[in-house]
Structure formats: C-alpha cells, structure tokens
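$ run holo --ligand "zinc ion" --emit tokens
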Amino acid sequence: MKDLKAKVLYNILKTWFSSKERKRVEKLSRKADKDTIKFLNRQSVLNIIRKREEISRTDLTNETRLSPTTISAITSDLVKMNLVREIRVGESSGGRPPVIFGINPNAAYCIAIRITPKGALVTIVNTSFKILYRKEIGTPIYNEITLKDTLKASITHALEDFCEDIDLISGIAVSIPGLIDYENSTVIFCSSLHIENFNLQEIINEIMPSNKKAYIFKDADALLLGEYSFDLDAAYKNVIYILIENGVGMSYIHSGKLFKLPQGGFELGHMTIDPTGPLCRCGNKGCLDAMVSEDPAIKRLKELLEEGSISSVKEVKGLRYEDIIELGVQGDQACSTVLQEQFYLLGIGIANIINIFNPQLIILGGAFSHSGDEIVKQMKQIVFSKTLKTFSENTQIYVSRLGRDSSFLGMSKTVFEDSIFKMIKN
Ligand SMILES: [Zn+2]
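-- output --
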C-alpha cells in the first residue's frame, strides 16, 4: 500500500515536471522564434536602407509589408544603434514631411590589407565602401616572420593613424597570393612568400587580443569580388579574373558565386606553357609565372637592352611591370617586344581557360588595370585565335577599371555582410 502511494505520487510529480519542463521549453522556443523574427526584420530593413541609400518610413513599410508601427520601432532601434541616421527631411505630400533615412557611413570600419612579396597596402573602408585611409608598407615579405611583422605594423598604423576605437572595427581582412583554405583562415602554401600552413586568425589574435575576426582571401578572389560587386553589369554571372603582377593568378565567379575549392585551386601561374622553359619557384619548368609577369619581363628587357635594342629605358633597376606595359603600348621598341612575347604566352594561357570554363567575361587585372583599349585589342587577337569559335563569340575581355582598389572593396563587403549586414542569426 505504501509502495502504491509512492508510485502514484511519483507518476503525478513526473507528469507535472514534464509538463512544466515542456512549457518552459515551449516558452523559450517562442522567445527564440520571436527574437529571430525581430532580428530578421531589423536586418532586412537595414539592408533595404543600404541598397536604396535614401528611404522614408512609408517606402520601407511598402517594401517590407511590415506595419508602420514595426517600421517605426525598427528605424528608431537602428538609429540608437548608430547603424542608420536621419539624413534629411523629405518633401511633404500633404501631411507631415517624411524623415529620410540612410546608412551611417561611419557605423563601422574594416581594416583591409593587401599582401604581396613587395610589402603591404593597408586600408580602412567604411560601411559606405569608401576607402578612408591607406598606407603602403614597403618592407619585402619573404617568410612567416616578415609577414607577421608587416601585418602587425599595418594594423598598428591603421589604428593609431585613423581609428583608435577598436570596437568600431568589424574585422581584419587580408589578401594573400597562394593556396587558401577559407574554412580554416589558413594559407596552405605560397611560393612567392615562402610560407606554408599560416593561420591568419592565430596571428591576428596575437596582434590584437580583442577577438577580432580575421578574413583571409586569395589575392585574385578579393580583386574579383570587388569588380563583381562594384563595377560589373548584373547580367554577368560567370566571370574570370586574371591577375598579372608578381606572377599570374586566377579567380572564378560561377553562377554569381565565388568558386572555392577546399584545398585552394586555379593555380593558373603554374600551368606549364613551355616544358623546356625556365625554372619556376615551384620547382617545375616553364610555368606561366616563370615566363609572364614582372620579374621575367624585367629580365627579358635587360637582355634586349644588352643586345642593343632601341629603348628609352637606360636602367631596369626600379622599373615596374606597369612602366614596361605603358612604354610598350606607347611604342618603345624593346618594351614592345617584351610585351608582345609575354602577351603571346599569356594569351595561350587565357585561351585554355576560356576553352575549359567558357566564361561570359575575362577581366585582366593587376599591372594591366587601366591599361586601355589597345591592350584589350591585342589580347583579343591572340586569345580568340586559339579558342573555340562559339566560346570566343560569347566571351568579353575587359581590363580592370577599379584597379587594385577592388581588392579592398571586395574584402570589406564580405566583412560587413558577415557582421553588420548579416541575415542569419548566430
Ligand atoms: Zn610553377
């Protein structure tokens, strides 16, 4: 009898506790749903304000189909959070004139750094994607220590010169040549900087012990993201960027998305273009990197000058690839020869890429940025003589109009979309 009573009591308590627990979980989940909906509504309003640049509460209500009270509460929250500001008072259509909202351009900043073997260019970009600060650090980078030192100097300069309030920094973005493991923020291998398995987040944690998220990018990816988001017509969905500077790099946007491979990929610079060609720093012979780009161009120009070729260049020391391209286009005999030889090889490489990927557009960037129509004309002649006719009819070739700045714009867009403008709640 005593046991029966205890059993009944136990069952009552069990049901009571389970129903209490169930109610508690249901309440929590309702709250979580409510919080998520609130977050998503706020973020969609924020993103509409960002896209439209200037918008009134009435237009936000019409566009989101949220109630005027909800829009009013959200805009008020966003202003309090300093993400949105009241820009001006609009024109009245009878009643009270509307308040026009816009993004606060200085709500947050991204430190975006571009690394090359020659050093770093550090910038600060605001939420309106204006580059507000830039500083060049010309210390050569050739191993892990010099890379770490340059990153530290870049971040220190940016913070001291421009933004001392570290809380306003949304993230640190770094573009690096080489194979990138995006998932783990790691440079798997970079032959030009002589680094292997370099974890960017660990280094940023050492430099700035304030939990700042590090975003790593392959150099050509950062450049293409910028061009794609800030300069291209929306009709382009399959675009390839060819970066020509200290080597030859490539990036690919497929169906509107950056194409990434887990262990890196698209090492166009190490495509064999001449099996008997010069030794490449990767250990193979005749890679595109070893025959096209700055160092091979300077070496070849030096040979031509020694052979007596006519040129306005008297000394190759300190000459940049851009200078050789410019002089070549202007008709300098020796520079023009260098350019023609390199163009031919690069054209073969690009034709192979078009025959594999059939992109809508090829962007020539790096040293070729802003180089003009003549470069495009010459490149088209070489490339299209080697591509399938149907492919060449569909493919455009441009030179980059944004130049290297597209790298900072592309990186900061990714950082802000992951922090300020994100649509998924963590
Ligand atoms: Zn190679």
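-- notes --
The pocket of zinc ion is lined by residues 270, 280, 282, 284, 287, 289 (CB under 6 Å).
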